[in-house]
Write a structure and sequence with these properties.
Number of strands: 0
Shape: globular
Largest sheet: none
Order of helices and strands: HHHHHHHHHHHHHHHHHHHHHHHH
Helix content: over 70%
Length: about 475
C-alpha cells in the first residue's frame, strides 16, 4: 500500500508530460503532486497510521526547511534581470563568442563551469551567472539547447561535488561522520572517471557536429552592440561576486549585493535602456526607479533587432520564479505526507533487505538517494535521509563512513538536477530556459556518477574498512 501514492504520482506526471510537454511545470505537475499527497493521506488515514496533526507538523517542517531556497530563487530571478539589463551578461556573451571556438565550445564550457563551481562551491550560482552567458554563446554558435545545458550542468555539478565550500559536500560528510577532506579525496575515485568520460564525449561531439552558427555570431554581436553598452569594466561585478563567494559570505548576502551592484551599473551605464523598460514618459528619477523595480520583479523584454537574441536577453525576474516556488511547496507537501504516514519508512525497509554484499549495499544507497530525490524533491533531504538510514548498517558491516558519504553524494547531489520537480531540476531548467527532459540525456557526468559509484565498489577498488575488519 505504501507504493500506491508513488505509483499514482508517476502515472500522473507521465500523463502531464505527454499532454502538456514542456509546459508541464506551469501547473500540471503541481496538481499531480497534490493529488498524490491526498492519496497518501487517505491510505495513511484508513490504515490508522497518522493523525491530521502529524501531517500538519510534517508539512510545516518541510516547507520551512525550503525557505532559504525560496529566498535564493527570488534573488536569482532578480539577478537574472539586473545582470542582463546592466549589460554584464551581454558583455560576457560578447567576448565569449569571440574567444570560445565552436569546435571546443562544449568541452570548454564544462571545464569553465567546473572551475568556477569548484572555487565558489555552488552549482546554482555558477549556472545562474556564467551558465546563462554560455547558453547565449552556444546558441550563437548553433548548438542545440540540450547539448549546451548538458555541458554547463556537467561542469557545475562536478565542481559543486568536490568543492570544500559546497553545502552538499559538507552536509554529506558531516551526516555520515566523515572528515571533509577525507570525503572529498575518496570521491575522486568515482567523480574524476565520470567527468573525464563526459569531457571526451563533449570534445568528440564538438569536433564532429556540423554547427552553422557563424552567421548567428556576427548577427548577435551586432545586436548586442546596438542595444547595450559593452565594456570589459562591467566584468568587475562578477569578479566582485566571486570574491565575496570565495570569502564564504552567505549566499543570500552575496546574491543581494550582486543585485545592488548591477542596479547601480545599469543606472550609470545603460540609463536609456532602463528608461525604455519603465515605459514612463521622460527620463528622470521616476523612470529610473520604475524601470529598475520592473527589472527586479517582473518580466523584461528587450528589442535587439535579432529574434533569437530577443529570446536570449528576455528575463523573468522574481515573477518568473513563482511556478518553481509553487512546485517546491507542492513537492514538500508530498514528502510530508509520505513521512507522516510512515510509507517512506516502509519503502526503505524493503530496500534494506536487498542490501547483502558490498556492491548491493552501495547500489541500495545510491538507489535510495535517487528515490528520495524523486519522492521528496530535495537533494538535502535525500542526503540526510540516505545517510541516516544506512549509517548503522555500514558501521555494523565494518565499512568506514567515507564509503557511505561518497555513495550518498553519488546518488543524491548529481541526480537531483535530472528530476523535473526536484528543487535543483526546477531551478536549473528555469534559469537556463531549457526543460529538464531536454537537457537530461546530455548531462553525462550526472548520469555516469551513480554508475561509477557501483562499478568502483564492484571492482573492490579502495574499499576502506574500520580497524579490526578484513580489508577487501
Amino acid at each position: 500500500m505504501s507504493f500506491i501514492p508513488f505509483l499514482i504520482l508517476i502515472a500522473l506526471i507521465s500523463c502531464c508530460v505527454a499532454v502538456f510537454g514542456n509546459a508541464t511545470l506551469d501547473g500540471a505537475s503541481q496538481v499531480s503532486l497534490l493529488v498524490a499527497s491526498a492519496v497518501s493521506v487517505l491510505v495513511g488515514h484508513f490504515s490508522g497510521r497518522m493523525t491530521w496533526e502529524d501531517l500538519e507538523r510534517e508539512m510545516t517542517d518541510k516547507i520551512a526547511s525550503c525557505t532559504p531556497a525560496i529566498i535564493i530563487l527570488l534573488l536569482i530571478g532578480a539577478i537574472g534581470g539586473t545582470w542582463m539589463v546592466s549589460g554584464i551578461v551581454p558583455t560576457m556573451i560578447y567576448y565569449g563568442m569571440q574567444l570560445l571556438r565552436p569546435e571546443v565550445f562544449l568541452v570548454s564550457s564544462s571545464l569553465l563551469c567546473a572551475l568556477v563551481s569548484l572555487m565558489i562551491g555552488s552549482s546554482w550560482t555558477t549556472v545562474a551567472t556564467i551558465g546563462v552567458a554560455l547558453m547565449g554563446i552556444g546558441k550563437a554558435h548553433g548548438f542545440d539547447d540540450g547539448w549546451i545545458a548538458g555541458s554547463i550542468i556537467t561542469g557545475a555539478y562536478f565542481g559543486d561535488k568536490l568543492s570544500p565550500l559546497s553545502d552538499t559536500t559538507v552536509l554529506a560528510s558531516s551526516v555520515a561522520g566523515t572528515p571533509l577532506f577525507t570525503h572529498i579525496r575518496y570521491m575522486l575515485y568515482t567523480t574524476v572517471p565520470a567527468f573525464c568520460i563526459s569531457l571526451t564525449v563533449f570534445l568528440i561531439a564538438g569536433l564532429t557536429m556540423n554547427v552553422s552558427g557563424q552567421g548567428n555570431v556576427a548577427e548577435f554581436v551586432d545586436g548586442l552592440q546596438r542595444t547595450f553598452v559593452i565594456s570589459p569594466w562591467l566584468l568587475l561585478v562578477p569578479v566582485a561576486t566571486g570574491v565575496m563567494i570565495a570569502r564564504r559570505w552567505p549566499s543570500m548576502v552575496v546574491l543581494f549585493l550582486a543585485i545592488m551592484l548591477a542596479v547601480v551599473v545599469a543606472l550609470l551605464v545603460q540609463p536609456t535602456l532602463v528608461h525604455t523598460i519603465s515605459g514612463h514618459e521622460g527620463s528622470g528619477l521616476i523612470a529610473s526607479y520604475k524601470g529598475m523595480m520592473q527589472v527586479c520583479y517582473g518580466a523584461t523584454s528587450i528589442e535587439t533587432g535579432v529574434p533569437m537574441l530577443n529570446e536570449l536577453v528576455h528575463t523573468g525576474g522574481m515573477v518568473g520564479m513563482m511556478p518553481t516556488i509553487w512546485l517546491i511547496i507542492c513537492a514538500q507537501t508530498f514528502g510530508a505526507a509520505l513521512t507522516a504516514t510512515g510509507q517512506l519508512r516502509d519503502l526503505m525497509r524493503v530496500v534494506l533487505r536487498l542490501a547483502r554484499g558490498t556492491a548491493s549495499l552501495v547500489a541500495s544507497t545510491v538507489g535510495t538517494a535517487l528515490f528520495c530525490n524523486i519522492a521528496m524533491a530535495d537533494q538535502y533531504l535525500s542526503i540526510m535521509l540516505s545517510c541516516q538510514m544506512f549509517r548503522d548498517t555500514y558501521r555494523q558491516r565494518g565499512y568506514e563512513p567515507r564509503l557511505l558519504s561518497r555513495s550518498c553524494e553519488d546518488g543524491a547531489t548529481v541526480t537531483s538536477v535530472l528530476v523535473p520537480w526536484n528543487t535543483c531540476g526546477l531551478t536549473q531548467s528555469t534559469v537556463l530556459g531549457v526543460a529538464t527532459l531536454t537537457y537530461l540525456p546530455y548531462c553525462f557526468f550526472n548520469l555516469l556518477s551513480p554508475v561509477a559509484s557501483i562499478v568502483v565498489v564492484a571492482l573492490g577498488w579502495k574499499i576502506k574498512r574500520t580497524k579490526g575488519s578484513a580489508e577487501s
